[in-house]
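BUG: 3D viewer hangs when loading the predicted structure for this chain

Environment: internal workstation, default settings.
Expected: structure renders.
Actual: progress bar stalls at 90%.

Input used:
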Amino acid sequence: MKKQRIALEGIGLQLGYSQEGVRKPLLEDLNFQLVAGELICLLGPNGVGKSTLIKAILGEITPWEGQLLLEQKPLSSYSIQDRAKHIAVVLTDPIYPGNLTVGQLIALGRTPHTNWLGHLGEEDRAIVEKALADTHIGYLRDARLGELSDGQRQKAMIARALAQDGAVIVLDEPTAHLDLVNRLEIMSLLREISGSQGKAILVVTHDLDIALETADRFWILNCGCPLLAGNPEDLVLSGQIQALFPSDRYRFNVARGRVEWSQEGPDFQIEGPAEQAYWVKKALVKAGITFLDQTLVITEPFGLRLGEKTFGTLEELIGEFKQG
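Structure tokens produced before the viewer hung:
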């Protein structure tokens, strides 16, 4: 097996904030490894310390205890400029002038590598061109940021991060304002980049469904618990994914790969294909129907029969109960 290259490592970290001179720890005895070539998704409820961890990784705050190692050297030993050569960040709501072009934005990613005049050399321009190609937005080179869709703008931000040419890319909820198709496209792009370019990519997200489809590894944070890290499928099969839902009101449905409300099972029988029965049961329970005194039969083509009555749609069946 090929040896993994650790781009960033946290060892025994204690992180938190100070209030009137008193330390308020948020994360303690924190250990992790960001591995080159992996897409890691950081998940957890609001207020658990995800932002604090990201600030530490970016060098914005110093751990009270423990060590952060970037490329096997203490993060604190890097200057701000050198740190920017190794770690790129894409924030949720970056602020850039709307009249800046995509090409100009991506070129800003070369700032840590250029002289104080910001002059781009031949190598810099080649890296900018590659970032445009790798994110499939070459056609947007001369478009202004104010003219782009949210999805296009996010790709441009990722291209700027690629132009920094560091080992680590950190993204804070990059799919927060996007529709389903764009969320899938952005996360698939990040997975492609991590694998093909050997980048260690850390994504903070609440988008569990898409994270399950794309991530190589999950980091799960929860109040009072150590960081839980592992292959997403391992966490699902072992039941550890439930750490994301400490309340008994919610549970992760392993068969469906999604979060559901925990509730008492409905008292009825449905006869028919399992996939169709699942959606029929879901609609009935959502409508407040939890008891049927007869077996509900799914007919072909799709229809429903309950005793002597037949229904062409679920809406008709639910309407019958509401009338009753």
